[in-house]
Design brief:
The chain is α+β, with helices and mostly antiparallel strands. The chain has five helices and twelve strands.
């Protein structure tokens, strides 16, 4: 749950303290990966979200086209006393209230389909979640319909889905051509993440990797749609 104070959240404060210490020690700003490690967050998307909040609140400046370009504007204790900054901090806190947790239901392969025993659906315990800002998702999404899966494999790399990334899924039992879906192949108890196409009375599961061939399922009833991808969260490779 997000903090509901009118000031900075705990992770905002940790980021500011880390930025100051790192820049004092090194003379330049840390990378997104290093910032994430300092606050215990592996998602670059979530770290970027916190930085945008700090930038909007007037605590930092950065050039989105240049790496390691974060600049602390001045001592945060000074900024907090300024009415205009207090105002923007309230807005930032309001945005942080939109943070919510999505359960990580298990792992999905992005490669050739492989047998997945039913026990793997409980690969992660009930406490395994990923934090997402509501504003990062399309407004129409119903939060109760969302779940997350960890990607295993590289068949979707040209769709910017890499091994170890997290995909946010919307529960669905049908799909339109061209949508990225998690599917279960009933006959073999196999699962995979692919683009979905229904054509000529059969199903084509299309990878986004030029080194891999599409998978053709002649009997559409073998294919069970589990969900559609609505968002990809890139994971930091340590």
């Amino acid at each position: 749950m997000a903090r509901k104070s009118s000031g900075l959240g705990d992770r905002h404060e940790k980021i500011l303290a880390y930025l100051k210490q790192f820049q004092d020690d090194s003379g330049y700003s840390p990378s997104i990966r290093q910032i994430g490690e300092s606050i215990g967050v592996n998602s670059t998307s979530l770290v970027d979200y916190y930085l945008k909040q700090l930038e909007k609140s007037g605590f930092i400046e950065r050039d989105s086209h240049v790496s390691r370009s974060i600049r602390l504007i001045e001592d945060p204790t000074h900024l907090a006393a300024k009415p205009s900054i207090k105002e923007s901090l309230v807005q930032a806190a309001e945005s942080m209230r939109e943070m919510f947790s999505i359960p990580i239901a298990g792992r999905i392969v992005a490669s050739a389909p492989i047998p997945i025993p039913s026990s793997d659906l409980s690969l992660f315990d009930s406490e395994s979640t990923i934090d997402i800002a509501r504003s990062m998702l399309p407004a129409k999404e119903k939060l109760e319909d969302l779940f997350a899966l960890e990607v295993d494999g590289d068949s979707m790399i040209d769709a910017m889905v890499n091994d170890g990334d997290i995909v946010i899924m919307r529960r669905a039992i049908q799909a339109n051509n061209g949508e990225m879906v998690a599917v279960w192949l009933n006959d073999n108890d196999e699962t995979t993440l692919k683009y979905f196409f229904k054509e000529d009375g059969r199903i084509r599961l299309q990878p986004a990797n030029p080194n891999m061939k599409p998978i053709y399922i002649n009997n559409p009833e073998q294919v069970r749609i589990m969900g559609k991808v609505v968002m990809v969260i890139r994971q930091v490779q340590v």
